[in-house]
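ok so for the tutorial part 2 we go from a plain amino acid sequence to predicted structure tokens. step 1 is just haveing the sequence, like this:
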Amino acid sequence: MSVPPLLVSILGAGVMGGNHARTLAALPGAKLHRIFDSHADRAAALAAQTGGERPPLSIPLSPGRMPW
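step 2 — the prediction. this is what the tokens look like for a chain of 68 residues:
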């Protein structure tokens, strides 16, 4: 029986988010799904490095204003 990968998203593409993303990308059984950051270019760069996806957002992430 095959187990699907655990999909993980990262909120924040700074130093700690980058560490988490690189660690998750190397774990068998986990898949880096999406990376969210208030700086779209930073999220896109980290996604390119780790195989994650930076989704397009209709509401930009900013302190105190999250899309959920």
